[in-house]
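thread from #wetlab-drylab

HS: before we spend reagent money on co-crystallization trials with NAP, can we at least see a predicted complex? here's what I'd submit
DV: go for it
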Amino acid sequence: MTERRPHALDLFRLDGRSALVTGASRGLGLVMAEALAEVGASVCISSRSPDAASEAARALAAATGARVVGVAGDVSTPDGVERLARHTAETFGTVDILVNNAGVNIRGNIGDLSDADWDTVLDTNLKGPFLVARAFGPAMCARGWGRVINLSSMLATIALPGRAPYASSKAGVTALTRVLALEWASAGVTVNAICPGPFGTDMNRQLLQDPEKYHAFVQKLPVGRWGELHEIKGIAVFLASEASSYVTGASFAIDGGWTAQ
Ligand SMILES: NC(=O)c1ccc[n+]([C@@H]2O[C@H](COP(=O)([O-])OP(=O)(O)OC[C@H]3O[C@@H](n4cnc5c(N)ncnc54)[C@H](OP(=O)(O)O)[C@@H]3O)[C@@H](O)[C@H]2O)c1
């Protein structure tokens, strides 16, 4: 008898699933939230600004027809994550898919960076994913299915001057991903990381507005260009869906070949 195998495209559907994407009022988070909504998930969008989260949710619901809710919550503090978890439970419900996307970058050579700069980046980019995973992961384990997707960076692998807090935080995210993957593998919860190269979001406004810096990046990119925002969609849907059921603890470079060099 031949084994009945699911149709390849059905593996990517997220009908009936619910997703929380942190830091999704704009940038890559918003595009990943859009992707998850487009393939059937209901989506909760969070950011520090309640107005920005609500407005992004309203626009995304109108564009996709999906159920989309906006909630406020600062991922960098235990109180903020406690509020995020409470608002999400009250206004959205349970979460099957968590995208730990909220992030910040403060650039500068080490002698020019303050303690507060270091703390802001590490608290948001590394402690944030820890706090949010701890708030939502155990319930996924109890239900026997879940997906955690952490936004790391190509800077977890390669170095650039002026990026000490950011690169350190993202290397930590990659390590956190692997540890959580081991802790939750037997409970049906996968944990993976996306490591983007340069995309034209607000985070990179400084580089986008400086032609010299912008082109210096282009020259280092084997594909010869920055990423387009929609190019993050495929990996987000893959890691959120059944299509990646045997993938955990892995990191995926979406960087135009930069880290292949
Ligand atoms: N763009 C790139 O080239 C690139 C490359 C590699 C990795 N990444 C990673 O991809 C993720 C998204 O980056 P992006 O470029 O899309 O950034 P972005 O455009 O600057 O957007 C950042 C988002 O995070 C939210 N946010 C910031 N701090 C937060 C906090 N403490 N709590 C909750 N939300 C917070 C922001 O909303 P509020 O300000 O309202 O809170 C916003 O929605 C980040 O983790 C980043 O490190 C980006």
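DV: The longest strand covers residues 189-196.
HS: ok that's useful, forwarding to the group
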